[in-house]
Structure formats: C-alpha cells, structure tokens
Design goal:
This protein is of the alpha+beta class and about 150 residues long. It has a single domain, classed as Alpha/Beta hydrolase fold, catalytic domain (Rossmann fold, 3-Layer(aba) Sandwich). The protein is built from 6 helices and 4 strands. The chain has helices at about 45-50, 80-90, 100-115, 120, 135, 140-150; strands spanning about 5-15, 15-25, 25-30, 55-60. A 4-stranded mixed β-sheet has the order 1-2-4-3. Strand 3 (about 25-30), helix 1 and strand 4 (about 55-60) form a beta-alpha-beta unit. It starts with 6 loop residues before the first strand and ends with a helix.
Length: about 150
C-alpha cells in the first residue's frame, strides 16, 4: 500500500499519546488490530475503504507508535519478542504457512521490540468463571476491569 495515502496523528487519551493514521473521507470506519500486530495489518483494505469512508487506524495503547504506559518487568522476553510472537502467529492460525507474512512479522516484531512494546500483551486480568464470552458470562467482573484499564 502507498503509505503517502495515510496521515499520521497522535491524540492524548487518558495518560498516553495514542498514535493513529487516517485516510479518505466519508462515514467513519475504525479498524482495530489484534494482539501481535499493529495498525499496519489493515494496509491491504485501506485503499478500498478510503474511497467512501474516513478510515481511522490506531495503534492500540502500548503498541507500535502509541505510548507505552508505566514500566513493567519484561526481562523474560527482552530480545526474544519475535520468538514469543511466533507462538500467536503460528499457534492460532488454521494454516501457519498462510498466516502472517514474513515481511509483516518483521514489522510487528520490530514494533513490539521497542522499549515497553511488549507491555500491552502482559497487561491483563483473569476473569474467573468465564470463557471467551466475558461480557455475557461475567459482566460484574469484566466491566470494572475494563473501566480500570481505560
């Protein structure tokens, strides 16, 4: 994708600066990346969406170009970010040979290797008595945890 189509921005959100990119005009479409990726993952679809929409693509808190919140001990993965991320790219793919491309893996590994870049993956909370459907199975635990995080 032609990176000149995207405009880079930052915005203060709570106690950090959130990095995001915009393109196009029209009704807004916000594209959120998953763990072990950055907003870069959406590059293949942005040219089509921007024809009719304002596309907003943030790097989530603690990831990529967004600020990293307070320090957390990360000694176990420092210098081994790629090895750690490979677990997600390969282990959760239906076909690891067709999951995240090598070029994108390098982009994401470099982004997560930045100082504090892995922190977002380690910030979490266990919601007891719940599986994947947190808001349905345990809203009384999930809502306060989300409100504390944001």
């Amino acid at each position: 994708m032609n990176q000149t189509l995207l405009s880079d921005h930052t915005a203060p959100v709570n106690d950090i600066k959130l990095f995001y990119r915009t393109a196009g005009s029209g009704s807004p479409v916000v594209l959120l990346h998953g763990y072990a990726q950055t907003g870069h993952m959406w590059n293949p679809i942005i040219p089509d969406l921007m024809k009719h929409h304002t596309v907003l693509v943030p790097d989530l808190r603690g990831v990529g170009g967004s600020e990293k919140p307070c320090e957390v001990p990360l000694a176990l993965v420092k210098g081994r970010e790629r090895i750690y991320l490979e677990h997600f790219w390969n282990g959760f793919a239906a076909d690891p040979k067709r999951s995240v491309s090598e070029a994108d893996r390098q982009i994401y590994a470099n982004a997560y290797a930045l100082d504090g870049g892995m922190r977002a993956g380690f910030q979490g909370k266990v919601i007891t008595g719940s599986g994947h459907w947190l808001m349905d199975e345990a809203p009384q635990q999930t809502i306060p945890a989300i409100m504390e995080f944001v």
